[in-house]
Amino acid sequence: MKGFAFVGREAELAAIAQAVADVENGSSRAVWIEGVAGAGKSALLRSVVDQLPPTFTTVRAEADELAGDVALEVVAQLGVSRASDPFQAGLELLDVFAALQDAGPVAVIVEDLHWADPASRLALLTAARRLRDDRVVLVATSRPDAPDYDGWDRFVADPDRCLRVGLGPLSVDEVLQMATAAGVPLSPRDAERLHRHTAGHALYIRTLLAELTPEQLATPDRALPAPRSLASTTIRRLLELPADGQLLGCALAVLNTRTPLDLAARVAGVNEPAAALEALLATGFVTWSPSEAGTPIEFVHPLYRTAIYDDLPPTRRRDLHRAAGVALGETAGIAHRVAGAHLGDEDLAAELAAAASAKAAQGELSIASRDLMWAWSISADHEARERYLLEAAWHLLDDGQIGRVEARREEIEACRPAPLRSLVLGSLARSAGDAEATVRLLTEVRKLVAPDGSDEQVLAVALSRLAGVYATLDRGQDAIDAAREALAIGPDDPEVARYAWASMAIGEGLLRGGAAGLALLAERIDADPARVEPHDAELLVTRSMLAASAGHTSAAIVDVQTAIRSGHISNSVHQRPRAHLHLGQLLQEAGDLDLAATHIRIAASLIADERHRWLEAQVHGAVAMLAALRGEWATAELEADRAMVGAEEIGTFEAVYAAWFARAALARARGDDAALVEGMHLMLGDTDAATAASQITMMTSLGWWPPLIHAFVDTGDVASALEHIALLEAAAAQRGLDLRARLLGLRARVAAADGRPDEAAELFTESLARRGPDDPIIDKGITLRAHGQLLQARGARREAVDQLRAAHELFARLGAEPYRARVQEDLGRIGIHSAPADDRAPFALTEREQDVAALVATGMTNREVAAELYVSSKAVEYHLRNIFGKLGITSRRELAARLAPLT
After folding, report:
1. Which residues are 108's β-sheet partners?
2. pLDDT beyond 70 at 200
């Protein structure tokens, strides 16, 4: 074919050039080049790379259609070597890109992402989402029909994160430019005719400019002699070749990869490879590399390969695939052996199933699924086909590829009732947040188990997952029973056993309180988190949740921090975002709002990335509570509404409580005691207080109850306050919770409201003296303020000022602006004008700068901060420079002093 220079696409190139310039100036960009086959994606990409400034380091990866089931194959080309799952591979990519940035900005080029293995797609997406502050431009090419179930569709559609470049038809002017560049004289009218004939398809235009003479292209009174499809043009040209040239082209189309000439010739059955190649090269469809060992040959563009392959008669295609299978050997040629097999080749299907079993045991779940789907495609045995399909689906679910299983839902539902069928469908229901269907389907597994025990491992998995669902539905005894049954089977997979233990401990907590759950879990993991094996990190998260419900906030923080920093928390069953959310809530209670906000934001970003519907209400609720505490009313209202919507959709007790507590926190921060009381009554129902209290889950620290009692006092309902204090004391005793300091403070408030100031003063003093590190810091501030108000009413002005100033300082350092403002008003009424709120600068920083500052202030290194935020170390360095500049400081020690958490 004639040589062609790149022409046109000026607007696209200009947009990409601007993205590159943004990267040079210090911000990352993603560029998504999308177009149908032959639209010119590769040509545009070559032009982009050619125009990159010399300061850029370029790394490339190209997806191979035949390697689409080899996990992490594409990202391995970019330097990933340690990671075993997509999320960790994405983080390793960030490290790779960070190292490359030492030499300047980086261009990451990924061609044909639509063919990439699912794990690489997810790894690249993980990295792309976290490249906001690196000097990296990620450029990917893809077809419009690429899979959209893994999150790339949402990323590409976000203009703040990605420049989407759609390659539509070329214009008439661009057709003229292409013809001129190729040395083909063409008038504007002839160019318009060629444009109309090809619909502006770049490869079609190139083909016709190469195939037709100028006279044919300029003949106005008859149709262009070439057929209207590239496929027809390609086949016609191939048929003009000698027989050996045709055979070599057909064999190369079947092999579908860059192939040594001798191998392609053997598959084709050609005795004179050089002569056959010479004829084939004349078409321009194929290129060769004579200087490389083996003289590899390949198609210039996959459309040529597709045209030839699709035109092959079934028998010739089968024979060529069989020849390729022989030439490549049993293992390397397995895909060709499958393509050349006849329906009902049960021996090959069984061989594939055995290979899948071996791959699954090695953790290569995507390849195992591929082999099973091949077995399904060639088997004629109905029972075996169903088994192959269901096992393939299960491996995909275990690999996190829910979308690929969802695409096969109809075939799965058409299978006869079987344990694995119910497990697969139950897992799909759980991913969709359908609790009722999940329970029904997972429960169904037990009824379908064969008497010979052959399905007991499937039952163990189903029971383990069922236990987890029961735990989220506040069905503690059911969770315990299902988990014990799963463990009694003896799961082969340690992860199944760990999940059963976690669900059993939570179930125990739901029935008998957090302390009981902790006692049960002590049978499984060491008391010292530093001695817990890394693979048990998720059990540490479970223990942290139980410790929090038992009122052991400090121990709970240590456990979950250890788990997060182990790097062994998976993203399955929402564990990673749940861990960060839980830590954020604990830190908020302990008084470190900056660090709390960081972890809640991490959780929010993770669920936004992965669509964890079961956790959305809790995250929105946590954001609302933190915003309310800081007086950020618009954010608090919006997030509280979102939490309520999520709770209504999912309906789990966690989601419902999160939504109501968010509303209560908003009312409390605003000082709207009536709204707080009304909201809590709605949550507890229309029953009397004692009945409502008896229905409250045992796995709670009861931290929501004191604010309700304070609200009763502030609205003048002392009788209800006394009733609820008695109920709270009984509930705390039932759960083994130490709430003595808080109960004393509540009794002090009732005594003050009831006209017993001396008793109230004694109770306030004792309450404050008993406060420990596990008591909520906000509650201490409220007690200090109430004590100060009492002292002022008694005429003890000096003592009152001491208490109110202590409350003011606490709220100011905490960043609890509405509470601080109310105490400042108290001080103003007695003639004390306190200093304005301390602008400690986190709120003058961007959210990401706040996150970096909060973590650096704890003493973490840049690499440790990057790991916790799931960003690159370069991004942390960039933000730290900005932080130092904005705060006017020069050291990490100064930063720590500015952001010292409240103790």
Report:
1. 59, 138
2. yes
CB contact set of 125 (below 8 Å; sequence gap of 6+): 90, 150, 151, 152, 155, 609
In 10 A of CB 707, how many CB atoms?
Answer: 22
pLDDT at 119 over 50: yes
The tokens 């029961």 sit on which residue?
470
Higher pLDDT, 284 or 541: 541
3-state class of 737 per DSSP? coil
Chain centroid, CA 572 distance in Å: 10
- What is the mean pLDDT of the segment spanning 164-190? 82
CATH architecture observed for domain 525-602: Alpha Horseshoe (1.25)
Q: Identify which of 229, 250, 351 has the alpha carbon closest to the alpha carbon of residue 299.
A: 250
- What pLDDT band is residue 479 in, cutting at 50, 70 and 90? very high
**Domain locations in the chain?**
10-168, 173-226, 234-339, 352-416, 419-513, 525-602, 653-829, 842-898
Mean pLDDT, residues 137-148 taken together: 82
What burial letters (b/e) apply to 358-387, b meaning 16+ CB within 10 Å? Answer: ebbeeebbbbbbbbbbbbbbbbeeeebbbb
Give DSSP secondary structure letters for 556-599: HHHHHHHHHHHT---SGGGHHHHHHHHHHHHHHHHT-HHHHHHH
Residue 761: name the closest of 793, 790, 798 by CA.
790
Can you name the CATH fold of 653-829?
1.25.40
Across the strands, what pairs with 298? 287
Residue 788, pLDDT above cutoff 90 = yes
Domain 10-168, CATH: 3.40.50.300
Query: Given the DSSP bridges, would you call strands 259-260 and 296-299 parallel, antiparallel or unpaired?
Result: antiparallel
DSSP 3-state of 109: strand
At 619 the pLDDT is 93
Spatial contact of 333 and 363, defined as CB atoms under 8 Å apart? no
CATH for 234-339 is: 1.10.10
Give the count of beta carbons closer than 10 Å to the beta carbon of residue 655.
Answer: 26
- d(CA 165, CA 33) in angstroms, rounded, equals 5
Q: What are phi and psi of 334, to 5 degrees?
A: -60, -40
- By three-state DSSP, how is residue 63 classified? coil
Q: Quickly count: other Cβ atoms within 10 Å of residue 319's Cβ.
A: 16
- 2, pLDDT greater than 50: no
Distance CA 127, CA 98 (A): 11
| Length in residues, the chain | 903
| Cα(382)–Cα(366) distance, integer angstroms | 23
Residue 15: predicted pLDDT? 94
Q: What's the CATH superfamily of 419-513?
A: Tetratricopeptide repeat domain (1.25.40.10)
The 3-state secondary structure of 345-378 reads CHHHHHHHHHHHHHHHHCCCHHHHHHHHHHHHHH
Query: What confidence tens digit (pLDDT) does each residue in 278-325 have?
Result: 999 998 889 999 999 999 999 987 778 888 998 999 999 999 999 999
Q: Which amino acid is present at 388?
A: Y
Q: Using N-to-C axis directions, what is the helix angle for 456-472 and 476-489, rounded to 10°?
A: 160
pLDDT at 771: 94
Residue 202 has pLDDT above 80, yes or no: no
CB atoms within 10 A of CB 881: 10
Res 612: pLDDT = 59
For residue 740, is pLDDT > 60?
yes
91 touches 82 (CB < 8 A): no
